[in-house]
Amino acid sequence: MSKLAIITGSVGAVALAAAGGYGGYQYLEAQPRYADVVAVEPIKETYFVAREECYDEVIEELAPSRDENQIAGTVVGAVLGAVIGKQVGGGNGKKLATVAGAAAGGYAGRRIQQDMQGKNVQTRTERRCQTLQDPKQRVTGYQVSYSFKGETGTVVMAQRPADKILVVNGELQLDGPEG
Prior knowledge:
alpha+beta, 5-stranded antiparallel beta sheet
């Protein structure tokens, strides 16, 4: 065998081995690989929803009076006081007792009517409403911790991943099919 044949054969064998090794490497890299999901934390956003809450409130207030100055009570009290005062004494004393009875009766009648009007309350019901803001939460994404080839990392994903994440050409496939 000639030296040329041996060298040519050797170079050919090395080239064939290199091509086969590169092809095998490409084949291995083309095989799907997966990163293991270590932890998944939802990313939450708080928002508020308005709602109206209504209730009935009972309100007490003084009833309107036709006689705000208590004239009727004063007059009735004065007449009764004068009648009672006239029964006391005689002569000028009778006149003085009648006037004093009328004054005292007028005052007492006014006070009695004023007290009665103060107790004359009416009630009504008013509807009260207020807008309340109820807090709600929604998940806007997921913070995912993963492990691949002994290294750990963290990414944010729109969807919750399965137990594994597909890796193609060394890149995580975050939007692609999950393992």
